[in-house]
Specification:
Layout: E1 2-7, H1 33-42, E2 45-51, H2 57-69, E3 73-78, H3 87-96, E4 100-103, H4 122-129, E5 134-137, H5 144-153, E6 159-161, H6 172-186, E7 191-195, H7 208-222, E8 227-229, H8 242-252, H9 258-272
Parallel strand pairs: 1-2, 2-3, 3-4, 4-5, 5-6, 6-7, 7-8
Helix pairs in contact: 5-6, 6-7, 7-8
Length: 277
């Protein structure tokens, strides 16, 4: 069963996608389940995980309403306000909803690189680690050491790194430092990583050959049992279409066994996010 473990929906009229502006080019329009479903069918993908793209509780509720209306949306990674005084009750409520499989506080957008490690957030993170919800880490290479520290402090907190931590594809000067940080992260068994979002970190026109060095490192360090495939649609459309990324992913994974490919393309998402299929 193939699963797209990282895709988004948004409706501009809701008004909380502050990063979306007319300058966002092809992304500045509504993207809804009816737009995605034909792409999934064409690529043999039977379910998805919808991931938040606005830092509001209201957007999480919007995604849950879509998941309730469309059974192929198997899970939702929502947003929580970690510094809210009632965050503990919010976490408890999310954990009771079988469609909620994780939370994502969008660390890449915060000024403080080590924001998540501040002592005032320790109680919340401890509570989160007791729920079984996944902590989706939207990070850049500068956050790799921070997330390694986070994992060491909360060994029961399942963490999924989004988009391979957004390496600078094609920049050979930063490749070693990124690979070193990825290696340190992979030493923590509760950390998995998404094979997603790489094309939008690459120069225009990048192909499988350009991505191969990065995918090889991710495979070497996380193995086929801790890599999770996702499209990052519709952000993907800045660099490719859905069919193109799916075909390229098949090329990138072509040297693996059928069992390993099946794990990356769906089995790992099902297990790590505890999806009710």
């Amino acid at each position: 069963m193939r699963i797209d473990a990282h895709q988004h929906f948004w409706s501009l009229g809701r008004g909380d996608y502050h990063w979306l502006t007319p300058a966002s080019d092809c992304l500045y329009r509504d993207f809804e389940p009816g737009d995605l479903q034909p792409l999934l069918a064409r690529n043999g993908i039977l379910g998805t995980v919808a991931v938040q793209s606005a830092a509001t509780v209201a957007e999480t509720e919007y995604l849950l309403s879509l998941a309730n209306a469309h059974p192929w949306i198997l899970g939702v990674v929502g947003w929580i306000d970690i510094d809210s005084p009632d965050v503990a009750s919010h976490i408890d409520a999310l954990a009771l909803n079988p469609k909620v499989v994780g939370v994502r506080p969008m660390l890449q957008d915060l000024v403080e690189v080590d924001w998540i490690l501040h002592p005032r957030r320790a109680t919340v993170l401890k509570a989160l680690s007791e729920t079984g919800l996944v902590f989706d880490a939207l990070i850049k290479p500068a956050h790799l050491a921070v997330v390694a520290t986070l994992a060491a402090r909360y060994p029961n907190l399942p963490i999924v790194i989004d988009h391979g931590a957004k390496p600078h594809i094609g920049d050979t000067e930063t490749l070693f430092a990124w690979a070193q940080g990825i290696s340190i992260l992979s030493d923590h068994p509760q950390i998995s990583c998404k094979l997603s979002g790489l094309l939008t970190e690459a120069p225009a026109g990048a192909d499988a050959d350009d991505l191969n060095p990065y995918v090889d490192i991710l495979l070497d360090r996380f193995g086929a049992d801790r890599l999770i495939w996702g499209s990052d649609w519709p952000v993907l459309e800045l660099a490719s279409d859905y069919d193109g990324w799916s075909r390229m992913s098949d090329d990138l994974l072509a040297g693996l066994t059928d069992e390993a490919i099946a794990a990356i393309r769906g089995g790992n998402a099902r297990r790590i996010y505890n999806l009710n299929v």
